[in-house]
Amino acid sequence: MKLNLEGLKNRKEWEEKGIILPSFDIEKMRRATEEGCTWIHFGAGNIFRCFPAARMQALIEKGLSDTGIIVAESFDFEIVDKIYNPHDNLTLSVTLKSDASIKNQVVASVAKALKCSPAFPEDYEGLKKAFRNPKLQMVSFTITEKGYATAPKYVQDDIPKGPEKCSTVICMVTALALERFKAGAFPFAFVSMDNCSHNGEKLQKGVMEVADAWKKLGFVDDGFIEYLSNPEKVSFPWSMIDKITPRPDGGVAKMLSSLGFEDTEVVVTGKNTWIAPFVNSEECEYLVIEDSFPNGRPRLEESGIYMTDRDTVNKVEKMKVCTCLNPLHTAMSIMGCLLGYKKISDEMKDEDIVKYIKRLGYVEGMPVVVDPGIIAPKSFIDDVVEKRLANPFMPDTPQRIATDTSQKLAIRFGENIKNYMASDTLSLSDLKCMPLVLASWMRYLMALDDNGEKFQPSPDPLLESSMKVVEGISLGDKGPFDEVLKPLMENEAIFGFNLYTSPLKDRVLEAFASLVKGKGAVRETLHRYVNE
């Protein structure tokens, strides 16, 4: 079984192996997309291939759309050359369920894959043509938050080149919007689907900063600025996306090979993108989008995507980031590194860790959770604990999740703690595991596991400076640790508030002292905290 249009002609062989194939006429869909594309997506990576692309396929299968998606890649062109082109823009989506069942489906909703760069004039002209089409409704993104930034020197150097010669993604996207403006100022929506807070606002800020700079340089006029500033012409909806899509896994590749699927080679590009003809991902997925589309939109709600207002999107994001997923992830990643775990699913076999994250979510987080109304917080945590983190087929690691922890603590724990401090009805004395998380991170900075063995902490922009604070502390030290840890604890950028002057200070110092008593102290402290 080869993943290309020719290979799909032998439907019987695929279907006998339990692989779901598209039922629509792929070539007909591609012709319709060429004539009137409604959806362009920037970012051809794994999450797009198994999530937005799969949801669009569901609409085509239901007869709710006759067009697919044009995907544009602006960062790693090897993705197009080595994955999309050889496989006729098809993807084998492998959904790994927590009950050990697997769903294999060929996703064929991508009509065309283009390299977004003037260095590839034919592809770039194809994008210009699609942007000029009046039928275009939405241009979405999974390019990471960094793609919207204008401050980096390489973007600042690119802006003066103007719309005809620019090469960075935020400048090219603005230049393509200019093409649409010149063609008739047709309306459309710029939809960020990146996993960052207020993503639509960040995208809008980047586009407007480029456009304003071009106006000052004489490349565009007031009319273009007014076009981008008019929400009835160009909107920037907010969204919240949540789906774990790890690198292609060797075990999944072997499973597919045993079925007779031939295209299992994992490609590692020159830019260190790990990608394969297949994508392995978890079953749980959420995409909530602000319903602001001035030129209409695909019937996304018919494919399981939540369409709502901006306030609800914001609430869903806060629910996920502050209570129901991200804090649990961060807490268990720190503890997992200290206890020597290499897989998240293995941590979920540890009774103490399970009690730890359940208390964080159900007991300490729930009193201050933001309920968005469309997704019940308790149900969300239920899925996290029972289906997502415990899934033995998801090759995710505490080391990966521990990356950039100093940038995460303020939003994932600081916001909840501040809510407790500001409340007339809640008591900080009810918090046991949140202080332990903060203390365990400072213990993690010692780069010694619970057996006293050295480990390499995950990348973090504040890692080096933070580790210097604790470098004089050894296992077995008795403290007191308040003056030693003061530079960390009073850093509001890390914790979201001044931990050193807060009522929680002594509880965190007490937990830290317990964690550094000696070998085995991390386990002993964790066990005691979750069983008191």
Quick tags:
single chain, 532 residues, alpha/beta, six-stranded parallel sheet, four-stranded mixed sheet, 24 helices, 11% strand
- Radius of gyration of CA atoms, rounded to a whole number: 25 Å
Low-pLDDT sequence parts: none
The amount of helix comes to 40-55%
Share in β-strands:
5-15%
Strand order of the largest sheet: 6-3-2-7-8-9
Please count the beta strands (DSSP E, at least 2 residues each). Answer: 15
Overall residue-averaged pLDDT value: 96
Alpha-carbon distance between the two ends: 56 Å
Explain what the structure shows.
The mean pLDDT is 96. 45% of the residues lie in helices and 11% in strands. The relative contact order is 0.09. It contains 24 helices and 15 strands. The strands form four sheets. Strands 6-3-2-7-8-9 form a six-stranded parallel beta sheet, sandwiched between helices. With 532 residues, it is an alpha/beta fold. The protein is globular and about 70 Å long. The chain has helices at residues 11-16, 26-36, 46-50, 52-61, 78-84, 121-132, 153-158, 169-184, 199-216, 222-229, 250-259, 310-324, 326-338, 344-347, 351-365, 377-388, 398-401, 409-422, 433-444, 463-470, 482-489, 492-495, 505-515, 521-531, and strands spanning 19-20, 39-42, 69-73, 91-96, 102-107, 110-115, 138-141, 188-192, 234-235, 239-242, 267-268, 274-275, 278-282, 286-290, 306-308. Helix 19 (433-444) packs across helix 23 (505-515). The longest helix has 18 residues, at 199-216.
